[in-house]
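Re: that backbone. Tokens:
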């Protein structure tokens, strides 16, 4: 893919930055734009709620492919502030879709297992969506728009974890709290596919290289309870798993309801790609081993709030 120009919108986020690095390793010409509140020394700044700003950036970069992991991913915040977050997660995403397709670029949109209600348990790409929270409704709405355009690709993923500048994802929250000797409460019954972003990025790069379009599930290989995954993470980083406190599902109160099990089948992506989904132990081991490389990268490419 070195001959193609690529744009990653959300390049300082967890998934977006993994994509930037994965494509850079492949020699691609990557331009990364950040969400409007975060600037970096190397990335472009973009408020994707501003259609004129989106048009200017895409017309200037003229990418052949636009990856769009940028979003407000805080599920409870979306539930409490639906209109505000729709401006980013729906209107902003559709601004990027419109501008990209108008300039002849395909879009890779990153969606979520939260488009499902959890009643079936394990879902394929053919199952109808039925979100039970606002974040899932937002993702489902953009999915439908993306899939109307020829050549666009929707990648559903779940429980993304890995290194990032701000310790937002579940594994980094566990490391942060347990390293300080603090307990962390984890819902006992929820089951899903935790997805290591380095593996996810390699999967998406290969899908892009093959010109894949339509809908694919790209998640970790293992269906695990959130509680068990938390304990695996503690063990992988040499931390005290006894500080992880199991909370019965009915007692774990959050503003947004979560699907009890939103596991995703990956038969479609497995059949198409050489790169296969990793299990939780493989992902966590790689994450632990790559900590020195991440720290070096983060120091060389500082992200700061603007």
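Recovered sequence:
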């Amino acid at each position: 893919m070195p001959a193609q120009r690529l744009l990653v919108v959300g390049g300082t986020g967890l998934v977006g930055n993994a994509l930037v690095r994965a494509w850079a390793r492949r020699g691609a010409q990557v331009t990364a734009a950040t969400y409007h509140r975060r600037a970096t020394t190397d990335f472009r700044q973009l408020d994707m709620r501003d259609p004129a700003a989106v048009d200017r950036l895409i017309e200037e970069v003229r990418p052949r492919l636009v990856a769009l992991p940028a979003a407000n991913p805080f599920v409870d915040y979306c539930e409490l502030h639906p209109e505000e977050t729709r401006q980013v997660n729906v209107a902003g995403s559709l601004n990027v879709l419109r501008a990209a397709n108008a300039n002849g670029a395909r879009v890779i949109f990153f969606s979520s297992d939260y488009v499902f209600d959890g009643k079936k348990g394990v879902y394929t790409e053919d199952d109808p969506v039925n979100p039970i929270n606002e974040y899932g409704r937002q993702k489902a709405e953009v999915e439908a728009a993306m899939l109307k355009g020829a050549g666009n690709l929707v990648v559903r993923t779940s429980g993304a974890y890995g290194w990032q500048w701000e310790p937002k994802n579940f594994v980094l929250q566990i490391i942060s709290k347990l390293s300080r000797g603090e307990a962390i409460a984890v819902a006992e019954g929820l089951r899903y596919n935790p997805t290591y972003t380095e593996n996810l990025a390699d999967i998406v790069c290969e899908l892009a290289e093959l010109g894949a379009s339509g809908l694919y599930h790209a998640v970790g290989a293992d269906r695990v309870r959130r509680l068990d995954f938390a304990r695996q993470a503690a063990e992988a980083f040499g931390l005290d798993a006894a500080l992880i406190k199991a909370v019965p599902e009915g007692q774990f109160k959050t503003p947004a309801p979560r699907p009890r099990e939103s596991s995703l089948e990956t038969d479609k992506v497995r059949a198409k790609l050489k790169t296969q989904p990793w299990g939780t132990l493989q992902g966590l081991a790689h994450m632990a081993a790559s900590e020195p490389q991440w720290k070096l990268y983060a120091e060389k490419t500082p992200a700061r709030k603007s």
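The first strand starts at residue 5 and ends at 9. The chain is about 40% helix and 20% strand.
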